[in-house]
Amino acid sequence: MRPNVAEMWHEGKVGPKTRAIGLGCARKKSRSLETEKRGDHGYLRSSASKVSLRRFRPGIALISDGYTNGIIGAIITMLTRDFPQSEVGMQYYGRLLASIMLAATAISILLAGLRSSHPHRILVSTFFIAIFSTYASLWSECVWEDTAWLVGGLCSLLFMIGMGVGLGNMPVTVSVSEQTEKESIPENAQNRWSVLFTNTMINMGFVISVLVPLLLCCVIDENQLNMVCAISFILCSILSFLWCQTLEWDLSWEDVRIPVRLALKKYRKNLLGLSLAWFIYDFITFPLVIYSSVIMNTITGGSSSLIIVFGWTLFINLFILSGSVLGAFLVDGHGPKNLMIVGLLLQAIVGFGIGAMRDTVGNHIAAYAIAYGVFLGLGEFGPGNCITVLAVKTAPLAVRDLFYTLAAVSGKVGAFIGVWVFPQIIDAFGSPNTAEGITALFWIGGGLAAVCALVTFYLVTPIVHNSMKAEDKAFHQYLEENGFDMSLIGAPRNEA
Fold first, then answer.
1. Kind and range of the H or E run holding 392
2. Global confidence as pTM
3. How many Cβ atoms sit within 10 Å of the Cβ of residue 367?
């Protein structure tokens, strides 16, 4: 039988130290029981949080999305070294390789968004990426004397890989964002988890896409870059199995003819704003990310070791990942719309600053890499994180997939155009070998960031906590007022 410390204390049988320990244990036990009952910060809440994080697990698949897109920049850089006299780099073949996957991703996102999400799309996505990445690995391993044959084969395979990426992107992103408003998620952390398991995962994939060729170049001779390319594509195939995830979605609108006309009438302003903002943002950011290793290769004179080139590129990409993580922890406190505007304005200031100090920045590799990284990091801190959250959470369930699809495809179109236009901008202001040429991208990007901030301010709708639930309720009321038969809508049914 354990002694009663409280009774012994009253009877004077224990000393001051024992009294303090006994009373401390009693208080600790009391607080523990109280916390367990209340569920605020104790064991029960911790357990719920663990359950909630498992719901976000499908978002890990987006690492494959980022890696698959990011590795193209490294492949172009290595092909530039292997075929120095050909039009790779930022010339015709390089632009073709950088843009072909974007076109395929836009097409497949559009096709997937025209109908509600189904499980087989994730399996098809895995199949496409795994099989065609393996073929790309074998194709790049061969020794080619004709650049046209090598690039033509890679473009065909990259198109199929892009189709796979697009088929998985929309269902995973929307499903993960919808899980953030479940009961176990605190209201002040909903958008944080949405960002961390969508945009941050993509940025982690970009970091890995530079880290892998960097490590491979450390152990493989640079005269065997075809082997580095092949192994990089093999990892792309391995990461594709991250898409094999269980998704949950609400089927209450299944088999119901969605009133798209009424939805467009109510949400057209917000959809237009998100589509324009995404177009401008990806037009600025995606070319700078894809061409980062190509630009660093040019700045170093094309003669430095690829370890140095990829090292600087990794340094730049770490700013991107850091900006995304930092923004994730601020998005709930300031709101996605406000944080997006702040990020764009800061990006504009940095872009103009780089343009104003082009001689200082352009002639020093370290200063240029830091400026490059900060510019892209601010983009992920604001619009990169927030635009996905806004695209998903400002639309009601009935048209959520469709509206996200239209906004995301607008972004891919902007990225596609940017990949082709940015090299021409560099040439128009000098060349990749001049300070004017390599800094022109930033002050033009800064001006477009300011325009994007204005578009967001005037056209994009802000969101609050539990915004999807509130938006669904408002949309149902809107449909009733316009004569839509609400009895056609089934009860909320979540399926995996």
1. helix 385-393
2. 0.87
3. 14
